[in-house]
Amino acid sequence: MEERISNSQRAEVLTEALPYIRRYNGKTVVIKYGGNAMINDQLKQQVMEDIVLLWLIGIRVVLVHGGGPEINELMNRLGKKPVFVDGLRVTDKETVDIVQMVLAGKVNKTLVGLLETKGGKAIGLSGMDGRLIECVPKDERLGYVGDIVKINIEPVEDLLSKGYIPVISTLGCDRAGSAYNINGDTAAAHIAGALKAERLIMMTDVAGVLMDKDDPATLVPQLTVSQAQDLKAQNVISGGMIPKVDCCVDAIRAGVKHVVMMDGRVPHSILMELLTDEGAGTMVTQG
Q: Which of 108, 129, 125 is nearest to 173 (CA)?
């Protein structure tokens, strides 16, 4: 039987959220969205509802998204096998065309459409629009994978000032205008840094930083930049967590006040993080 919430409980929830609404009103929050949180349709609907709710209470929300599973799906349908080196997609000319179609086309416009149907005002951009993300080749082994050299943040600021939710796909361009695939976490960290965002939320497929990677009860709720470096040296942060934590640290050093890494598969995790006493995931701060 479905548990019903009484009106007094609803009022209590709203009262608890009030200080946080006041704190974040008018502030910029960047949300990096990807992984399994994008695959589950019900979860995707909830994430879009949460973003619109934040926008409605006066938070300047920027959504930065990837789309790895959708890229893999189209590559497989076209008979092209995805190849990765050090966790990064090897991107030849044909693959970068596929990435551009999926990210700047299907995924970006789907998310914009969902935000609009939930009552928000959203406009989609890729990192190529307005030369938002300028890059150079990262490694010749990777082909069209870019290393960010400059963020031209004015198009995003313009949209925020006009009351829109910018939805940004993680493509970049070089000086000649060629398209490059950009790691989503890296792009989000650079964009949040350029905006001097109040908070960057990294939605991942893990709960956050764990002292024991096999035990969710060992979640580290808060880390300073120096503590994060210590945990890397101790091999507590290892493997695929290293680049994620490095992105958090880079964002803090670029001027973001707080970065939160959390499990995007948990329903309403964004609201739990921003509008409740409990929070979610691991928060990285300057210290």
A: 129
* DSSP secondary structure of 110-166: HHHHHHHHTT--EEEEETTGGG-EEEEES-TTTBSBEEEEEE--HHHHHHHHTT-EE
Sheet of strand 171-173: strand arrangement: 146-151, 133-137, 171-173, 179-181
pLDDT at position 204, please? 84
Cα 250 from Cα 192, distance rounded (Å): 10
How far apart are the C-alpha atoms of 100 and 285, rounded to whole Å? 34
Do the Cβ atoms of 60 and 28 come closer than 8 Å?
Answer: yes
pTM of the model: 0.92
Q: Which two tokens stand for residue 184?
A: 């989503």
Give me the mean pLDDT over the 63-81 stretch: 92
Q: pLDDT by residue (tens digit) across 188-200?
A: 999 999 999 999 9
